[in-house]
Design brief:
The structure is a single chain. It contains ten helices and five strands. It is of the alpha/beta class. A hairpin with a 2-residue loop joins strand 1 and strand 2. Helix 5 packs across helix 6 and helix 7 packs parallel to helix 8. The longest helix is centred in the first third of the chain and has 19 residues.
Length: 256
């Protein structure tokens, strides 16, 4: 009210009528005009994202735009952030509409967030976390699935694949089972389709592994795994531009 009427009346009078201090009003006004650093970055990213999307005539989705930002501007940004900003802009990839499928739908299993952000472990083989990240090279991607011990930050097992599927996750868990005694261990993940699949839950149950899952849409529930991937990308991928699969795979093995 004060802002809209300040052109006609004295601010001191309007503040008195509204029951607020003059200094308080000016402080509020300054805050309204100030964007946080993150908000400023997002606005700049939105401009570049929109430019890329228009150049591709709406064909590019968020993963292709991630590659574009990296190659053209040397901007390394998480694909989830690009997806969210595209959603805010109201744009998405123009894709062919899939034919409806009337077959049996795959059942999925949801577990409680047992870990509950208690990322400290008192001993080895008590709490593990797992996740998948994508790694770009050239015009393609590889997917890295990792299991990580919260006690000593050790990577227990990892698997690299060109496909982000259930097999990738199952193979990672099997590698961990071969290396360690798993009965009683808590394994925490997000709610990705691989982790809610019946084969995943059957495998964990068979080997006595307790299942924990992040709450829906809450990446901070698996912050340690996100942090590991972030450090890996900062220390390895951002320093080098990998053009072929072998280069990238060699770097993953070297780092881990």
């Amino acid at each position: 009210m004060i802002q809209s009427m300040s052109a006609r009346y004295a601010v001191s009078l309007l503040c008195h009528l509204a029951g607020v201090s003059r200094s308080g009003y000016y402080k509020w006004q300054r805050q309204q005009g100030r964007l946080t650093k993150r908000q400023q970055e997002n606005e700049q990213l939105k401009t570049k994202i929109m430019s890329c999307w228009k150049q591709s005539r709406g064909i590019y989705g968020y993963l292709r735009i991630v590659v574009y930002l990296r190659k053209k501007y040397r901007i390394y940004v998480n694909h989830k952030r690009v997806y969210r900003l595209m959603k805010e802009l109201g744009i998405r990839s123009v894709i062919r509409k899939k034919k409806p499928y009337f077959g049996k739908k795959e059942a999925y299993v949801i577990s409680e967030n047992i870990l509950n952000r208690e990322f400290h472990a008192a001993r080895p083989l008590e709490k593990w976390v797992t996740d998948i990240t994508y790694l770009p090279f050239g015009q393609s991607f590889l997917y890295l699935s990792t299991i990580y011990d919260l006690y000593n930050n050790e990577v227990i097992a990892y698997k690299i694949s060109p496909r982000n599927d259930i097999r990738l996750v199952l193979d990672t868990v099997k590698k961990a089972i071969q290396k360690r005694k798993t009965r009683g261990i808590l394994l925490h993940s997000d709610r990705g389709f691989q982790y809610t699949s019946k084969p995943y839950h059957r495998l964990l149950k068979r080997h006595g592994i307790k299942v924990s899952m992040s709450r829906k849409g809450n990446c901070h529930d698996n912050a340690c795994m996100e942090s590991f991937f972030s450090h890996f990308k900062s220390e390895s991928l951002r320093l080098h531009h990998y053009t072929d699969q072998k280069q990238l795979v060699d770097e993953i093995h070297r780092y881990i």
